[in-house]
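Write out the 3D structure for:
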Amino acid sequence: MKQVWDLVDPITEIPEKQKWAWLDARVAAKKYAEKKGLSKAAFAREVDIAAATFSEWFSGKYRGDYTKTTDAVRLFVDNQHSFEQTEMQVPEDLGYVETPTSEKVMSALQFAQSMPEMVVITLGAGMGKTMTARKYVEDHSHTYLVTMRPTTSTPAAMVREIGMAMEINERNLLLLRHAIGLRVQRNGRKPMLIIDEAQNLSDNAVNELRDFLDRYGCGIALIGNEELYTRFGGAQPKAAYAQINRRTGMRVRQMRPTKQDVAVIVDAWDIEDVEARKILHAIGRKPGALSQVSKTVRLAHMLAFGNGGKVDAKTIRAAWSNRGGEEL
């Protein structure tokens, strides 16, 4: 690496007014790249400069505009340093935290995989349904988490999305569906498909999932918002959804976190200030729920950086206000 980033004095005809800025950017590029273990080519890709151009610029043999390349390198390095400073101030997100509600979701997923059955899980925004699903997949073999979008609402688009999640390289739709079926067939294993944002699926796409359950014995978990519950989770389903509802073995519906859920998240952030904890409990009961608590705490840490790093009620209020929240 030292040879690659050698700073021997080049023989160059750089105009004097550009030379000092070039030398400064050159040293900055070398220090940053060596810190990150980047070659010249890798650094050039990071800055979005052609590798040949960067190499010639770095060696002082470039015949183009030094100012443009120098400014691009300097801006990139400065921005990276700025990002690193911000990252130092903001703690990492909590990741998965076991709350009473997440335990319910875990139990439903376990039920779907074991039986096998179809389960419908409906949680309010910011209550950790996706994080819980990811944790379940991490801890259980033969499970696949696939997130749907409005553009994957049709059966064909959904099947292709599932295939990509399983890393099945097959363009023919019928062969792809067959390959997925073989992957989730219940032949001594207990496979399961977890479909997140399932409210984006059309009725025909959900029926396609029902066929995976019937034909291959694959557990199915539909996770989504209130619209999903309205279609497939109600106690008195519409006639059009009778086949889906008949095969639904368990339903979990909770649109707001419990007090215990909020308490667990606030405790996990290790906030000691009593007033700050009260404010966070109030935030946790608002739309966005537990996610709002975590985002507010992370921003509060950044705001508190110049105040000795202490997160108190004042910084929590300021963070909540900066995120567009009303006065608390």
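The chain has three domains: 16-88, 100-254, 259-322.
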